[in-house]
Specification:
Layout lengths: L1 H18 L1 H27 L5 H11 L3 H8 L5 H13 L6 H19 L3 H33 L5 H52 L25
Helix pairs in contact: 1-2, 2-7, 2-8, 3-4, 3-5, 4-5, 5-6, 5-8, 6-8, 7-8
Length: 235
């Protein structure tokens, strides 16, 4: 097992040396991308980003007029949606605050949470966009070197000299695409998760504002397993 690992590392090292400085740069960029992706996964897991049940349960309790129980339900989760719902209920409990002031503060509070979730995604976007260009740049440089070697050979042209230079040049394009594609998938997945948070925040906050806890709602509780219909997020 250890011998196979050593052989794999030696093989990768040989490929890096063949590809030149561009491939080495792409390898370093890929390490940065992997580090950010792992950090974002840990951040999302710690934040409980997939937990919508607590906030929906709080909304159901609030609809029945039990505001204290609804507030307690939001405290059982650390998810962004539950945090926004908790903040909304706490501010609404203050009778002295006008509704416009509460809405403005909730919008800012939600925007701060979403901005925290979006941290470092711009770096991943830059890596996904830059990696193919770096790969193409390395290919162009490799082709230039290959044709220079072909010209220097003069009449004693060896086809292997040209073909070897071409595959070495194309290696950088392959590496660039190999770095860009998974990073782009990760970025789009993270963005989708954040958009879902914004949608859910908007839906929960809007429902809280249109309900009056002093007049319990007689409508059936919302289905905690059925997702809300997407609307343009305002938070």
């Amino acid at each position: 097992m250890l011998q196979n690992l050593v052989e794999l590392l030696n093989h990768l090292n040989d490929k890096l040396l063949v590809g030149g400085p561009v491939v080495i740069l792409l390898a370093l960029i890929s390490i940065v991308a992997i580090t950010i992706i792992v950090a974002k996964l840990m951040q999302f897991r710690t934040a409980g980003i997939s937990d919508f049940r607590s906030a929906r349960e709080a909304l159901s309790l609030y609809r029945t007029g039990n505001a204290p129980a609804a507030l307690a339900a939001t405290r059982r989760s650390r998810s962004p949606v539950a945090r926004v719902a908790r903040r909304t209920l706490e501010l609404k409990a203050r009778q002295s605050l006008p509704e416009a002031r509460i809405r403005e503060e909730i919008m800012q509070y939600g925007a701060d949470i979403l901005e925290e979730l979006r941290s470092h995604l711009r770096t991943l976007e830059v890596i996904a966009s830059l990696s193919p260009l770096l790969g193409l740049f390395g290919t162009v440089l490799g082709m230039i070197e290959a044709f220079q070697a072909l010209q220097a050979a003069g009449n004693q042209v060896n086809p292997a000299l040209l073909s070897g230079g071409i595959w070495q040049a194309l290696l950088t394009t392959a590496v660039g695409l190999g770095v860009a594609m998974p990073v782009m998938v990760a970025v789009n997945w993270f963005e989708r998760l954040i958009d879902r948070q914004a949608q859910e925040m908007d839906s929960i906050v809007t429902r809280i504002f249109i309900l009056d806890p002093s007049q319990p709602d007689t409508e059936p509780d919302i289905d905690t397993d059925e997702p809300f219909v997407y609307r343009r997020p305002v938070i």
